[in-house]
Amino acid sequence: MEFSKKMLVLHIFVSVVLCGVTVAGTLLSWDVGAVAVLAGTSLVTDGTWGGFYLWKSKNENRAKYAQRFLKQFAGQYGADVALRAAEIVLRD
After folding, report:
1. How far apart are the C-alpha atoms of 55 and 87, rounded to whole Å?
2. Whole-structure pTM value
3. Cα angle vertex 12, ends 20, 24, to 5°?
4. Could you report the per-residue pLDDT of 29-65, keeping only the tens digit for each?
5. 3-state secondary structure the chain
């Protein structure tokens, strides 16, 4: 498993634990203000890591598909045509 996926899983795990402690502490009338702040911060961090991971995966897939286009079409139509086709299809 690559580093970014490990960090995403770790942050989600920490968020679930902190949210669980916040809920349990609220039900048991503990003072959980600091834990609630940490849980909120952790959820924001999860969103950031999730966005980073999705962006990174999208770009890796685009590179992979561009290589496939080149392999499939370069022999038949030439590298320039294959590059232009990949560029059009994989455009943001």
Report:
1. 18
2. 0.55
3. 5
4. 777 777 777 777 777 777 777 788 888 888 888 888 8
5. CCHHHHHHHHHHHHHHHHHHHHHHHHHCCCCCHHHHHHHHHHHHHHHHHHHHHHHHHHHHHHHHHHHHHHHHHHHHHCHHHHHHHHHHHCCC
